[in-house]
Design a protein that fits this description.
Oligomer: heterotrimer
CATH topology of chain A: OB fold (Dihydrolipoamide Acetyltransferase, E2P)
CATH class of the largest domain in chain C: Alpha Beta
Shape of chain C: globular
Helix content of chain A: 10-25%
Order of helices and strands of chain A: EEEHEEEEEHHEH
Order of helices and strands of chain C: HHHHEHEHEHEHEEEEEHEHHEEHHH
Largest interface: B-C, 201 and 195 residues
Strand content of chain C: 5-15%
CATH superfamily of the largest domain in chain C: Type I PLP-dependent aspartate aminotransferase-like (Major domain)
Chains: A alpha+beta (about 130), B alpha/beta (about 450), C alpha/beta (about 475)
Number of helices of chain A: 4
Number of strands of chain A: 9
Radius of gyration of chain A: 13 Å
Helix content of chain C: 25-40%
Shape of chain A: globular
CATH topology of the largest domain in chain C: Aspartate Aminotransferase, domain 2
Number of domains of chain C: 2
CATH architecture of the largest domain in chain C: 3-Layer(aba) Sandwich
């Protein structure tokens, strides 16, 4: 399992990559994609939508389940990774390249885990 | 009394003892006494023979008309003999929804074939595995078209009033605002539609041919709807689709319809079949079961229920529809019907309907019933006269003929299909003539 | 297996319709441009095609079908015969009332008998399936609150163990869903329920026995908590087969109920429908019922209820399904109806007792008509899942139990044998269940590979959903 150091993580298994203070990418962690299994579809928000820290902004479908994807930050959706619509499998294959949305005008950020803390957290979840 | 229990009383006692109970009372002792019922106030059970007798008695109280000239949502078509032979096969009849693909390939493949035929008929890209009937298909289609900022659905006044009623009932639930676009000379008033459509319009639903049998200018309506950025839903008669411009060719986003004409009995209104097809873009908004092709672990072609994450058993309160059971056996009926008819048979049925309806209108016209509208029509049309509809229909009924549907005091909605012969239609005209001149 | 489109020869077809006996008319409006591709087969080829398909289907007639919560009981043949009577099949739904008195009598009699079984005062036969009935029943609840101008009642309480249709139906009817956690034993947590009820409570949806197959003894208290809060109680009839003639939803305090004729009343499922989901209600809700009610005794007549919610379907519902169910109820009568439920509960408890030493049961109490096993431990220890056990059963010609439901039990297999199975059959399948378990334990890999004897092996569902192929391309 891969836990890149440059990312921050939420306990519901999203990663955040801060490009600068007010801009970030959000995606699903390696641990998340592994436990979900084959992802078959994603429902994404639209550009210009507002996201709120602690609430769901998208969902991912596997064959027999739907899981919400939560935003750890509040802000405005500046870009949506529409490539995921045609190739949801990329979330399984390269979770850290498969960002869901780019958020701008960040007004609030939850307390997030660094890679080391998150790795420990996932180990405890598995047990 | 009849019973279908697997165990005799003796065996039941033996089983009870084996699992530690001395009686059924003991087995049910955990149910509080205050909710238990002593005895149901039902008649005593009947033997199979008596039960069937009783049902026959009821069936005999109905009049079975040999000659039917009434449609209005339920059509009297010929059903090829093979249809009944296939759908009464007990494997198809007694199976549940095909959750276990490995032992359900027959049903899954038949639905895949059905979906393909519905796509062919409508020209649309994708079809679901069916919904309850044409009216609920229309209501589900309206719900599919709702968007965050678009919450008003327009429905033409020329659609079957029953369908409108179901759409309104569904929308009472889901909160979509419904407005009716008036009719003008038996078709949708285009100017009224243009004026009504706004930024918050989700969709427009029309029927082709419409309730009065008239053929709408579906292309033009579609253009008006799309100009306003709304979705275009066409409710179609499946027999007419064999010859009419397809919904896809008219620009429809969703095509739905009542599938009863495709091999289902009149049966006092059901079970019938709601078919639903959509553009590829709308695929994931389709409600209900959808079957897809895949391979098994050895690479063999296989069929499965797919895109299931749209559905209630996974998405629960976020599902776009609650539908679970659909009309699978009716979908099978429709596909056997279409397979038996083939392109030639379907086209022939449509042309027979068209020709016979026009012949009937001509004969009725001569007999004194004037066409109400000057529109092109398919297999239904409305007449009007000075003679009360009920007088005409009673006269026909006396001769074992079910005439058209009275729409008001003087107007009658007639229907002719391939089952109506020239001789029969001339007989109807003769009776009508006698009444009108009487 | 070839698709129907891959068989036959161009130009072949069955001869069905006669030549036109009136002058031919040409369509004056735009014609379809794309040609219509349909199969081109002789009747023999067509007939064989469907016979081959039928062989790849497992129906109740093919063997044991313990699909939990689906009540796959035997479908009596006399029901089919009654539904095939020309006096029913050839009746146009818009005939004059005096020419369809028999159909109306079927509706009226069915409504009366089903009201008696459920303890309700009025009923509509218009809904076409269970979920459709739920939607209808919830609209009745909505109309009731609306009629009292009680607009703040927007919430429907649903236990977390409920069928997915419950929350989905509530949302379709315009409510928001409040999900309450179940107690360890799967029953309603009264404290939690008291916490969530209030002035915004429109109603509660519940099955009893609940979705894990246990009878909730606090039922009177549950429904009175809802009533005291001003809400209505909705009974999901999915599990009615456990309690017919023993308890009635109406006596348990429920105001609205839907029943599944295709489960409890022996009408066949047809591979996923048509079903029928009549909705019964207490007298104070009758004025809101959809469709038409049959009134009168000698000369029957239709009447639209005064404040009807409208129509949830065309005409009078899936009428022929109602005919089958009525035949069934008339056959069983007041003795046979409770006898069916009793034997259903006996069969379930018998099977549970004979399996519980090796298959861990999620709940230890006496069950009703179905029971839930949990393969969690086995999955954890040797990696054999509920799915593996289910798929292994396929090789023995047994339809697997319901998998992974209810959601509150991990690795769940839910078994509902129904009353129409004999002890002899149960003993045989108990043997198979035990054998499957032992084999999986000895050789987990073989269990992962199952089934091997079926027409296809496990299908790739991920591929099917990622790149949907939903029709044949010519």
């Amino acid at each position: 399992m891969n836990y890149p150091n440059e990312l921050k993580y939420r306990k519901s298994h999203e990663w955040v990559k801060f490009i600068d203070e007010s801009t970030a990418l959000i995606g699903l962690s390696d641990f998340a994609q592994d436990s979900l299994g084959g992802i078959v579809f994603v429902n994404l928000p639209e550009e210009g939508d507002e996201v709120t820290a602690g609430t769901a902004f998208a969902d991912v479908e596997s064959v027999k389940a739907v899981s919400d994807v939560f935003s750890p930050i509040s802000g405005v959706v500046a870009e949506v990774n529409e490539a995921l619509l045609d190739a949801p499998e990329s979330i399984n294959e390269a979770p850290y390249d498969s960002w869901f949305i780019k958020v701008e005008n960040i007004s609030e950020t939850e307390d997030l885990m660094d890679a080391e803390t998150y790795e420990k957290f996932t180990l405890s979840e598995e047990a | 009394m009849g019973s279908y229990l697997g165990n005799t009383t003796e065996v039941q006692q033996e089983m009870l003892r084996e699992i530690g109970f001395d009686s059924f009372d003991a087995l049910f002792s955990h149910i509080p006494d205050e909710v238990k019922v002593k005895e149901l106030n039902l008649p005593s059970g009947l033997s199979e023979m008596e039960a069937l007798d009783k049902m026959e008695e009821m069936a005999d109280k109905n009049t079975v008309f040999k000659h039917i000239f009434r449609g209005a949502g339920a059509y009297n078509h010929y059903i090829p003999a093979i249809v009944g032979s296939v759908v009464n096969k007990e494997e198809f009849l007694t199976a549940y929804t095909p959750y276990q693909a490995e032992i359900s390939q027959g049903i899954l493949q038949s639905i895949f074939e059905y979906q393909t035929m519905i796509c062919e008929l409508t020209g649309m890209a994708v079809s679901n595995a069916s919904v309850y009937d044409g009216a609920t298909a229309a209501a589900e289609a309206v719900a599919m078209c709702r968007e965050r900022k678009r919450n008003t659905a327009f429905v033409s006044e020329t659609v079957n009033p029953q369908v409108l009623r179901v759409i309104k009932t569904y929308c009472y639930g889901n909160g979509i605002h419904v407005e009716v676009i008036p009719e003008k000379d038996g078709v949708t008033d285009m100017e009224a539609l243009k004026a009504a459509l706004k930024e918050d319009s989700a969709c427009f639903y029309m029927q082709q041919p419409n309730f009065y049998g008239n053929i709408e200018d579906a292309d033009a309506l579609g253009e008006i709807v799309h100009e306003a950025g709304a979705k275009y839903i066409m409710g179609c008669n499946p027999i007419a689709l064999a010859i009419l411009k397809t919904p896809a060719e008219c620009g429809a986003d969703v095509a739905v319809g009542e599938g009863q004409p495709l091999g289902m009995e009149l049966a006092f209104g059901g079970p019938y079949l709601g078919f639903m097809a959509a553009t590829e873009k709308m695929m994931r908004k389709l409600p209900g079961r959808i079957v897809g092709e895949t391979v098994d672990k050895e690479g063999k072609r296989a069929y499965v229920l797919t895109l299931q994450a749209r559905e209630q058993h996974i998405r629960r309160e976020k599902a776009s529809s609650n539908i679970c059971s659909n009309q699978a056996l009716c979908a099978l009926t429709a596909s056997v019907y279409m397979a038996a008819m083939g392109e030639k048979g379907m086209t022939q049925a449509a042309n027979l309907c068209l020709s016979k309806a026009h012949y009937l209108q001509g004969e009725l016209n001569k007999a004194g019933l004037k066409p109400k509208y000057g529109q092109p029509y398919f297999h239904e049309f409305v007449t009007t006269s000075d003679v009360k509809a009920e007088v005409i229909l009673e006269a026909l009924e006396k001769k074992g003929i079910l005439g058209g549907l009275p729409l008001n005091e003087y107007d009658i909605l007639w229907c002719a299909t391939e089952k109506n012969t020239k001789e029969e239609m001339e007989q109807v005209a003769a009776i009508v003539k006698e009444v009108c001149q009487g | 297996m070839k698709l129907v489109f891959e068989r036959g020869n161009e130009g072949n077809q069955c001869t069905i319709l006669p030549e036109c006996d009136v002058p031919q008319v040409e369509l004056t409006t735009p014609k379809r441009e794309k040609s219509l591709h349909l199969p081109q087969l002789s009747e023999n080829e067509l007939s064989r095609h469907y016979t081959e398909l039928a062989k790849q289907v497992h129906g109740v007639n093919d063997g044991f079908y313990p699909l939990g919560s689906c009540t796959m009981k035997y479908n009596p043949k006399v029901n089919e015969e009654a539904a095939a009577l020309k006096g029913f099949t050839k009746v146009h739904p818009l005939q004059p009332e005096h020419t369809m008195q028999g159909c109306m009598e079927v509706l009226k009699t069915s409504e009366e008998l089903l009201c008696e079984i459920t303890g309700m005062d009025a009923m509509t036969l218009q809904p076409a399936a269970g979920a459709h009935g739920e939607f209808t029943g919830l609209l009745l609840i909505k109309a009731y609150h609306d009629s009292r101008n009680d607009k703040k009642r927007t919430k429907i309480i649903v236990p977390d163990s409920a069928h997915g249709t419950n929350p989905a139906s509530a949302v379709m009817a315009g409510f928001t869903v409040v999900s309450i956690p179940s107690r360890e034993d799967g029953c309603v947590d009264l404290d939690k329920l008291r916490e969530v009820v209030g002035e915004d409570t429109a109603g509660l949806m519940l099955t009893n026995p609940n979705t894990v197959g246990l009878f909730d003894k606090n039922i009177l208290e549950i429904t009175s908590i809802i009533h005291e809060a001003g809400g209505l109680a909705y009974y999901d009839g999915a599990n009615l087969n456990a309690v017919m003639g023993v308890v009635r939803p109406g006596d348990m305090g429920f105001d609205v109920v839907h029943i599944n004729l295709h489960k409890t009343f022996s009408t066949p499922h047809g591979g996923g429908g048509p079903g029928s989901g009549p909705v019964g209600c207490k007298a104070f809700l009758q004025e809101f019922l959809p469709g038409k009610q049959v009134t009168g005794t000698e000369e029957l007549a239709f009447k639209v209820p005064e404040h009807s919610i409208g129509s949830v379907k065309e005409f009078y519902g899936n009428f022929l399904v109602v005919v089958k169910a009525l035949t069934y109820v008339l056959t069983l009568g007041k003795e046979g109806i409770p006898a069916a439920s009793k034997n259903a509960v006996l069969n379930a408890n018998y099977m549970m007792e004979k399996l519980k030493d090796i298959y861990p049961m999620a709940y230890q109490e006496t069950c009703m008509h179905e029971f839930v096993m949990t393969l969690e431990k086995m999955e954890h220890e040797i990696g054999v899942s509920a799915m593996d056990i289910a798929k292994s059963l396929l090789d023995y010609g047994i339809h697997p139990p319901t998998m992974y439901f209810p959601l509150i039990v991990h690795e769940a297999l839910m078994v509902e044998p129904t009353e129409t199975e004999s002890k002899e059959t149960l003993d045989e399948v108990i043997g198979v269940f035990r054998e499957v378990y032992e084999k999986a334990k000895a050789n987990p890999n073989a269990a992962h590979e199952a089934p091997v004897a079926t027409y296809i092996r496990r299908p790739d569902e991920v591929q099917a959903a990622r790149k949907p192929v939903l029709r044949y391309e010519f």
